[in-house]
Design a protein that fits this description.
Elements: E1 4-5, E2 19-23, H1 27-38, E3 42-47, H2 51-58, E4 62-65, H3 66-71, E5 75-78, H4 82-93, E6 102-105, H5 109-112, E7 123-129, H6 133-141, E8 148-154, H7 160-170, E9 178-180, H8 183-198, H9 200-215, H10 220-249, H11 252-265, H12 268-282, H13 285-295, H14 299-309, H15 312-322
Helix pairs in contact: 1-6, 8-9, 8-12, 9-10
The chain binds NADPH dihydro-nicotinamide-adenine-dinucleotide phosphate, the ligand CC[C@](O)(C(C)=O)C(=O)O and magnesium ion (2 copies).
Residues 24-29, 47-48, 50-52, 66, 79-82, 84, 88, 106-107, 128-129, 132-133 line the site of NADPH dihydro-nicotinamide-adenine-dinucleotide phosphate.
């Protein structure tokens, strides 16, 4: 049974009198920094000059170059994109880490795949929220938290887990539950989840459904609602009550179709592909490819991103979402009562 920590297991005292440098102010960076500050923790932001620098200043933080932020920190949380962390660590973090301080991550990629090798005299801790950064902030403001994982790779001070739990409490995660894991387990499961199910799998399922309907002559707007828009409503039911909760709300006709057709669409071939994807994550093939793609200038990444942006589902979606008053304050046609 997984070990899960809640608020009573964590003590913010372990961060008392300490300075946390959050390096990067994007999706996770802005959320974790603001949550920590609201929890009474002293936070500074490490960045390069640019868009995020200005935003972090507008949000009232002390903003410094990465090396200047690290110099004053007892805890350094690296929240830049995974693919830039190793270079920034080497050039602007490694020489300035204090002995007895903590180096933290929200994803284990660079430690697990050997891209960052911290000195032995620092704690190395993972607090990985299981949700997008903007929700880490929104849910905290609503008085709840996004669940997270905790792992300790190095326990130089003997208090690494206590410090990690204090950090998790500071970002609101102990309100939801913090599960103990390892850098290896977090890295491999997170990469698998986002590639096979949450992002890669779902996007492909949505596009294939949309293309099947539109190629058969159905209106793109109806295909959009059926294959993308309604997905959120169905996933909300799964989130609240599992698969059975979702099936309780849908019609018996939909439930029968679910049982007989789901396995045909996502069947043995898909399960075999999932096993291959997992194996390539575990044996380092995916990580090697992603690191090389960045070293070679991200040409393939950019081409794939552009092709996805140009997909007809995005064009019809953009038009439809402009009419959705609940998404868009400027919608011309507010929802009718
Ligand atoms: N996105 C998410 O919700 C989740 C992310 N994670 C993990 O959290 C970490 C951060 O991910 P995420 O929040 O998506 O990252 P983002 O892509 O949102 O981070 C971008 C931030 O990093 C800054 N940055 C980029 N390059 C540099 C640089 N060379 N020097 C200094 N700052 C730089 C950017 O500044 P600028 O404006 O100047 O470009 C920006 O503030 C990753 O390890 C990721 O795997 C874990 C769970 C969920
Ligand atoms: C699902 C994508 C994710 O793993 C996340 C939000 O948890 C990420 O890397 O962004
Ligand atoms: Mg994730
Ligand atoms: Mg991830």
């Amino acid at each position: 049974m997984a070990k899960v920590y809640y608020g009573d297991d964590a003590d913010l005292q372990y961060l008392q009198g300490k300075t946390v440098a959050v390096v990067g102010y994007g999706s996770q960076g802005h959320a974790q920094a603001q949550n920590l500050r609201d929890s009474g923790v002293r936070v500074v932001i490490g960045l390069r000059r640019g868009r995020s620098w200005e935003q972090a200043k507008r949000d009232g933080f002390g903003v410094y170059t990465v090396d200047e932020a690290v110099k004053q920190a007892d805890v350094v949380q690296l929240l830049m994109p995974d693919e830039v962390q190793a270079r920034v660590y080497r050039d602007q973090v490694a020489s300035y880490l204090k002995p007895g301080s903590a180096l933290m991550f929200s994803h284990g990629f660079n430690i697990h795949f050997g891209q960052i090798n911290p000195p032995e005299d620092v704690d190395v801790i993972l607090i990985a929220p299981k949700g997008p950064g903007h929700l880490v902030r929104r849910v905290y403001e609503e008085g709840f938290g996004v669940p997270a994982l905790i792992a300790v790779q190095q326990n130089a001070t003997g208090k690494a887990k206590e410090l990690g739990l204090a950090y998790a409490k500071g970002i609101g995660a102990t309100r939801a539950g913090v599960i103990e894991t390892t850098f290896k387990e977090e890295t491999e499961t997170d990469l698998f989840g986002e590639q096979a199910v949450l992002c890669g799998g779902v996007s492909q399922l949505v596009k294939n459904g949309f293309e099947t309907l539109t190629e058969a002559g159905y209106q793109p707007e109806i295909a959009y609602f059926e294959c993308l828009h309604e997905l959120k409503l169905i996933v909300d039911l799964m989130y609240e009550g599992g698969l059975a909760g979702m099936r309780h709300s849908i019609s018996d006709t939909a439930e029968y179709g679910d049982y007989v057709s789901g396995k045909r669409v996502v069947g043995d071939a898909s399960r075999q592909a999932m096993k291959e994807v997992l194996e390539e994550i575990r044996n380092g093939t995916f990580a090697k490819r992603w690191i090389e793609e960045n070293e070679e200038g991200r040409g393939q990444f950019d081409r794939m991103a552009q092709a996805e942006k140009d997909h007809p589902i995005e064009r019809v979606g953009e038009k439809l979402r402009k009419t959705m008053a609940w998404l868009n304050q400027d919608a011309k046609e507010p929802a009718k009562q």
